[in-house]
Specification:
This protein is an alpha/beta fold. The chain is built from 6 helices and 5 strands, in the order αααβαβββααβ. β1, α4 and β2 form a beta-alpha-beta unit.
Length: about 300
């Protein structure tokens, strides 16, 4: 017994190559060839399998068709899914952007409107107290101007003799033009002033009768006839003039085209301008003339 991979020298035999110099005949070739071909044919015959049956062929065909169908279906699904996913992603992105932009704009507009409404409310809350303060200050200024005017008029009545005489002339002018006795009621100071200004002879000539009335203040006169009466009360005349001043529309001082009302001018108007006197046809009438009685005749010296 020999080991694997080990050659026993006793088993070695000489092997001689064929003699290629000796020609071989056709018979020898035929013999050798026929034997070789027969041997090869026998081996092939032994190795060839049996042909498949019709059922096996149909099964193989069906299996191949099914495998091809499944493979094509899977490839189509994969390709369609990839393309659909890509196309759907682009379309979804565009739609999402448009929808988000629209929602953002709408939400922004609502937020802006809410903010504007809040600012409007805040501004109104700030403006209302300012308007109230402005109105209060304006009313206080008007009241102050009226009080100043009253003080100025009272001083004017006490220091100016012409104011009382002008008021007297205006009251006489308001009476009907007919010869009748006129009764003039005045305070003690005005009574003395009228008597000294006209004199007893002139008063008698004009048919004027002076009567002392302590209840009347300085500058106030009351002129009576048989059918008419004219009251020239300084307080009433001043009150009417101040009412006219207060009722005039006052421009905004913040606007250049509307200059502010000058208080001094208003005081001048109240102390110098005369309003129309009422008609003496009624038993009692009021005089709208100012304290100075502008427009009347000057009393004689």
């Amino acid at each position: 017994m020999s080991r694997l991979g080990y050659i026993n020298p006793a088993q070695v035999e000489d092997w001689q190559l064929e003699d290629f110099d000796t020609p071989v005949t056709n018979d020898q070739h035929a013999i050798h060839g026929s034997s070789a071909s027969q041997k090869a044919a026998a081996e092939v015959a032994c190795e060839l399998p049996e042909p498949p049956t019709l059922e096996e062929l149909e099964a193989i065909q069906q299996q191949a068709w099914q495998e091809g169908f499944d493979q094509g279906k899977q490839e189509g699904l994969d390709k369609g899914l990839a393309e659909g996913r890509l196309s759907g992603a682009d379309q979804g992105l565009q739609e999402g952007l448009e929808q988000g932009r629209s929602q953002g704009i709408e939400a922004g507009e609502q937020e802006i409107q809410q903010r504007c409404l809040q600012w409007d409310n805040l501004l109104n809350e700030l403006i209302e107290p300012l308007n109230a303060v402005d109105n209060q200050v304006e009313q206080e200024l008007v009241t102050l101007a009226m009080k100043l005017a009253q003080a100025v008029v009272q001083v004017e009545l006490k220091t100016s003799e012409a104011a009382v005489l002008h008021a007297l002339q205006a009251g006489i002018a308001a009476l009907p033009q007919q010869r009748q006795q006129v009764q003039i009621c005045a305070s003690s100071e005005d009574h003395q002033l009228i008597e000294q200004s006209y004199g007893a002879d002139e008063l008698a000539k004009r048919n004027w009768q002076l009567q002392l009335e302590p209840s009347l203040s300085k500058g106030s006169l009351q002129i009576n006839t048989e059918r008419s009466q004219v009251s020239l009360l300084s307080e009433e005349r001043l009150h009417k003039v101040l009412e006219q001043f207060a009722s005039q529309p006052r421009a905004d001082v913040n606007e250049p085209q509307h200059p502010p009302v000058e208080i001094a001018d208003g005081v001048n108007d109240m102390t110098q301008s005369a309003a129309d006197l009422p008609s003496p046809s009624s038993p009692t009438s009021e005089d709208d003339t100012d304290a100075n009685g502008n427009g009347a005749e000057t009393a004689p010296e």
